[in-house]
Amino acid sequence: MENPKVIVLGCGVSGLTSALVLLESGYRSVTIWAKDLPPFTTSNIAAAIWYPYKIAPQQKAVEWGRRSYEIFLTLAGQPGTGVWLREGLEIFPAEMNLSEGLPEWVAFVKNFRLATSPDLPVGYGTGYVFDTPVIETRLYLEYLAGRVRQLGGQIIQKEVTSLAEPLENAGIVINCSGLGSRAMLNDQAVYPIRGQIVRVEQQLDEGFVLAEELPDATGHVGTSYVVPRSTDCVVGGTSQENNWSLEPDPATAEDILQRAAVYRPELKSARVLEHLVGLRPGRSSVRLEAETLADGKLVVHNYGHGGAGVTVSWGCAEEVVSLVGKSKV
Q1: What tens digit of pLDDT does each residue of 96-105 get?
Q2: Residue 224 in contact with residue 234, Cβ under 8 Å?
Q3: CB atoms within 10 A of CB 57
Q4: Confidence (pLDDT) at 221
Q5: Nearest 5 degrees, angle CA 1-CA 290-CA 161?
Q6: Residue 47 and residue 225 in contact, taking contact as beta carbons nearer than 8 Å
Q7: DSSP 3-state of 149
Q8: Is the preceding peptide bond at 39 cis, omega within 30 degrees of 0?
Q9: Could you give the count of Cα atoms lying within 13 Å of 34 in the half-sphere of its Cβ?
C-alpha cells in the first residue's frame, strides 16, 4: 500500500508530537497546518511541568502520562531539548481533606515521598515531594519542530476553518486543533480554561512548587505554582473555566505574586518580565478517537487535554499512530 499523505492540524505540543511519532513510525508524507506556530501557540505559554492537571478520563490520563514521563526522562538534560528533571513539592492546606488517598501516578514518578515538617511552609499541613520533568516550552517546541523537519515533515502556517480542505489534500487528517475544534467541528464540549501567569527575572535554587488552595464559594479548588527555569521563573496561576479573555488582569497578577510569596518569599523582590494568558482546551473527556468517513478517508481527533497537554503528549501521540495503523486507509 502506498504511504498515505497525512495532514496534522495544530502546531502546539499535541500536533508536533503526533507528527513526530508518525514520521518516526514510517509515515513519510506528514505536513502540519496551523494558524499559529511556535512561539505563538498556547503550548508556548505553559510553565510547564509533567503533572496530570485538569484532564479526564483519569485512568487514560495516567496511562498516557506514564508513557510520556518515560520519554521525558530520556530527553532530560539532552542539549537543546529544554527538558530537565527537577525535584518539586506539592503542598496542601492543613484544612484540606485528602481522604481519597494518593494519586495513581505516584507509583511511577521518581523519588516520591510524603513531605515532612521541614518541607512545609506555614499554613500547609501535608504534601508530596517527587522528581518530575520541567519542560521549558520555548525551547522544547522548537526542538520538536526541528525533529519534524529533520525527518522530512513540513510545517505550514495556514488557518483551517473546517475539515474539508485538509481532507481534499490528504487521506489522513490528525485533528490536534485544541480549542479550535469548538468552532471547526461545532464541538460545544470543548471550552476555554483561562490561565494567567507572571514571568519574573529572579531565579530560585529550589525546585518547583505546586500549592493547592482551599475550595472557594463555588467549590472550585485552585492551584498556585512557581516553576524556576533556565533564564526566568514562571509564577501562576489561574484556572478560569469559560473565560475567553486573553488580556492579563493587573489585579489577578498581583494576587498570583502575593500567593506565591507565602511559600517563596524571594518573589517579593523579583522583577516582572512579562504577563501572559493562555486558554487551555478543557473538555469533559479528551477526544482521542478515529473517525472513518464515507469516502474511506480517516480523521483522528486528539484534543481536549485541559491543563495536561504536555504531560500526556507522547502517550496520546502513540495512540494516534496506533489508531491510524488500525485503519484501512
Answers
A1: 666 678 899 9
A2: no
A3: 11
A4: 56
A5: 100
A6: yes
A7: helix
A8: yes
A9: 28
Alpha carbons 315 and 71: distance in angstroms, whole number = 9
**pLDDT tens digits for range 7-23:** 999 999 999 999 999 99
pLDDT in tens, 111-122: 999 999 999 988
Rounded CA-CA distance 329/327 in Å is 6
Which DSSP category does 241 fall into? E
All three cell numbers of 55, joined, read: 484532564
Half-sphere exposure of 93 (CA within 13 A, CB side): 13
- Confidence class of residue 326 from pLDDT cuts 50, 70 and 90? confident
The DSSP code sequence of 44-82 is HH---BS---S-S-HHHHHHHHHHHHHHHHHHTT-TTS-
For residues 9 and 166, is the Cβ–Cβ distance under 8 A? yes
Residue 206 has a pLDDT of 72
Which residues pair with residue 185 across a beta bridge?
none
Torsion, Cα 162 166 172 177, to 10 degrees, reads -50
Q: How far apart are CA 329 and CA 315, in angstroms?
A: 23
In which element (H, E) is residue 131 found?
strand 124-135
- Joined grid coordinates for residue 69: 514521563
Helical ranges in the chain per DSSP H:
13-24, 42-45, 58-75, 137-150, 164-169, 181-184, 250-263, 313-326
- Quote the CA–CA distance of 93 and 212 in Å, as a whole number: 7
Separation CA 12–CA 1 (nearest Å)? 30
Distance CA 143, CA 120 (A): 36
How distant, in Å, are the alpha carbons of 52, 101, 151, 184, 204 from that of 311? Answer: 6, 21, 24, 25, 23
- For residue 56, count other CB atoms closer than 10 A to its CB: 17
